[in-house]
Amino acid sequence: MYKLIKRDGNAKRGEFHTVHGVIQTPVFMNVGTAAAIKGAVSTEDLQQIGTQVELSNTYHLHVRPGDQVVKKMGGLHKFMVWDKPILTDSGGFQVFSLAGLRKIKEEGVYFNSHVDGRKIFMGPEQSMQIQSNLASTIAMAFDECPSSVAEKEYVQRSVERTTRWLHRCKDEMARLNSLPDTINQHQMLFGINQGAIYEDIRIEHAQQIRELDLDGYAVGGLAVGESHEEMYRILDAVVPELPVDKPTYLMGVGTPANILEAVDRGVDFFDCVYPSRNGRHGHVYTNHGKLNLFNAKYELDPKPIEEGCQCPACRHYSRAYIRHLLKAKEMLGMRLCVLHNLYFYNHLMEEIRDAIEAGNYKAFKKEKLSGFENNA
């Protein structure tokens, strides 16, 4: 259940109540594709850096170790030792990203596994069954994510099929949640709005799926090649068409600036691989822009990544030491950068929530964006 606490313009401050605890929104979900954050980050670390929601990938866990294995181990929460909410994506994005390995039909999608090449079929029912086995808090509907440069006619047909698939997802989840051996009988379902960069298709699709009274609604198929301006234009058109009393989730986004802009347009949930991926390459986020710790100017720098930051890296280690670890290819270097970046994102969301509650979100956003443009 979603409880709207405060609005500041279009920005929303809310609480989302789940069987695994209350999510304070807006929220950034930390991405652990294969039930772990890349960069040797444990679930104990996630607790320490203020993570509210962990996100895992349905397709990847289906391929390895297999969702039946996870179910036999008591579900994803027990398997990875995490007691807070988990969102699983549906595998639909892999339909987009594994374009060379797939064939899309009405019943679902035929893949070749990226791991061993074996044939896999996934449709709405299979995606729901896998996510039920994983026993995540929130399951995402199975959809097709058309390319942002796809022809309009193709996008229209694709979105119509995604709508038909959503009805099948809803029916199958209701069935699974009623079974006695289902681990999480309170699993929630979020639908996904698609339509590439065509406002009319997006709006029509939003109007159709909001009638299904789902637990939440995502905007998918953005941050896949279109410009930031196009993304904001689509959000301006679509978010007002989605229920204000349900969470809105912008999938796969993004940079701190993207998040600030999307919150201003009414988005509640975010996820992105940037903080962990960039951290593993020595790129760290600060309130004064992004730093590349491989740069020679940090060789003798005794300062933490960011003065005043309370993350495990900044509380103990210097830029010079972390740079040395990265250059020496020591895993600790990657780990410290990932921990800092995830803490930075999680803390940014806290600041966003406070600013909305205080009613000064516009001023807060402006100040943050001007800081990000600097280079420390």
UniProtKB/TrEMBL annotation:
InterPro entries reported for this sequence: ArchSynthase1/Queuine_TRR (IPR050076), TGT (IPR004803), TGT-like_sf (IPR036511), tRNA_ribo_trans-like (IPR002616)
Q: Which Gene3D superfamilies match?
A: Queuine tRNA-ribosyltransferase-like (3.20.20.105)
- Alphabetical UniProt keywords: DNA-binding, Glycosyltransferase, Metal-binding, Queuosine biosynthesis, Transferase, tRNA processing, Zinc
Q: Record's superkingdom?
A: Bacteria
Q: Which SUPFAM superfamilies match?
A: tRNA-guanine transglycosylase (SSF51713)
Region spans: RNA binding: 252-258
Name the EC number(s): 2.4.2.29
- Active site: which residues? D89, D271
Enzymatic reactions: 7-aminomethyl-7-carbaguanine + guanosine(34) in tRNA = 7-aminomethyl-7-carbaguanosine(34) in tRNA + guanine
- Which pathway does the UniProt entry assign to this protein? tRNA modification; tRNA-queuosine biosynthesis
Pfam families the record matches: TGT (PF01702)
Among the GO molecular function terms of this UniProt record, one is: glycosyltransferase activity
Q: Which residues bind Zn(2+)?
A: C309, C311, C314, H340
Question: Which cofactors are named for this entry?
Answer: Zn(2+)
Q: How is the cofactor bound?
A: Binds 1 zinc ion per subunit.
- Keyword check for DNA-binding: yes
Q: Where is the tRNA-guanine(15) transglycosylase-like domain?
A: 10-370
Class of enzymatic activity (EC top level): transferase
The UniProt annotation places substrate binding at D89, S90, G91, G92, F93, D143, Q194, G221
Record's subunit section: Homodimer. Within each dimer, one monomer is responsible for RNA recognition and catalysis, while the other monomer binds to the replacement base PreQ1.
Physiological role: Catalyzes the base-exchange of a guanine (G) residue with the queuine precursor 7-aminomethyl-7-deazaguanine (PreQ1) at position 34 (anticodon wobble position) in tRNAs with GU(N) anticodons (tRNA-Asp, -Asn, -His and -Tyr). Catalysis occurs through a double-displacement mechanism. The nucleophile active site attacks the C1' of nucleotide 34 to detach the guanine base from the RNA, forming a covalent enzyme-RNA intermediate. The proton acceptor active site deprotonates the incoming PreQ1, allowing a nucleophilic attack on the C1' of the ribose to form the product.
Q: Which family does it belong to?
A: Belongs to the queuine tRNA-ribosyltransferase family.
- Which protein, by its recorded name, is this? Queuine tRNA-ribosyltransferase
